[in-house]
Design goal:
3 helices; alpha/beta; six-stranded mixed beta sheet; 21% helix; single chain; binds inosinic acid; 181 residues; 10 strands; binds magnesium ion
Length: 181
């Protein structure tokens, strides 16, 4: 079992989604994706660093063949509020042309990262592009966007764990924790 609350400096966090709940929901997403992509071999593109835990758990629950690739973009730095400025730090390695692409994100907040990635991937002429996000913050998107596979909708509060960081730390927590206000 996970800790119910954790303290980091003067901040307090409380558990929001246990690992058991994460795994069960990821299992449902994997089943849905496996059905939708039956007979296809999609490329799962993990957005570093936050999506690594979701990607590794998700692909092990699939019943279809898949390939993986990674990209790294920055929008936050070590700040808690998006700068809105997105830069590519590590580009795609795979050739996306004519392929089915599933972008795997940890969380969608303003939606600016997803919008940037969608435009960039579409310019590479894939057969299709869809988005998976473990978490989506409610009423946050500053741009209209569609997340095809959402794990959980959450309140607009800062969360850490299971890939999500606080100034690069705490990604290795086994559950999702939300800041207590
Ligand atoms: P967006 O471009 O505003 O949608 O931001 C998405 C990125 O910001 C995510 O991929 C995360 O890396 C980061 N992010 C947004 N909200 C949080 C949070 O509550 N905790 C940790 N990282 C976050
Ligand atoms: Mg991220």
């Amino acid at each position: 079992m996970e800790e119910k609350t954790i303290k980091i400096d003067r901040m307090e966090f409380e558990i929001l989604i246990s690992n058991k709940k994460l795994q069960s929901r990821i299992g449902e997403l994997a089943a849905e994706i496996s059905r939708d992509y039956e007979g296809k071999v999609p490329i799962f593109v993990g957005v570093l660093n936050g999506a690594i835990l979701l990607l590794s758990d998700l692909i092990r629950k699939l019943t279809i063949e898949c390939e993986i690739d990674f990209i790294k973009i920055s929008s936050y730095g070590n700040k808690r509020v998006s700068s809105g400025q997105i830069t590519m730090i590590k580009d795609f390695s795979a050739d996306l042309h004519g392929r089915d692409i599933l972008v795997v994100e940890d969380i969608v907040d303003s939606g600016l990262s997803v919008t940037y990635l969608k435009r960039r991937i579409e310019s590479m002429k894939p057969a299709s592009v869809k988005f998976v996000s473990l978490l989506v913050k409610k009423d946050c998107a500053v741009v209209p966007l569609t997340i095809d596979y959402t794990g959980f909708e959450i309140e607009n509060k800062f969360v850490i764990g299971y890939g999500l960081d606080l100034a690069q730390k705490k990604r290795n927590l086994n559950a999702i924790y939300q800041v207590k206000e």
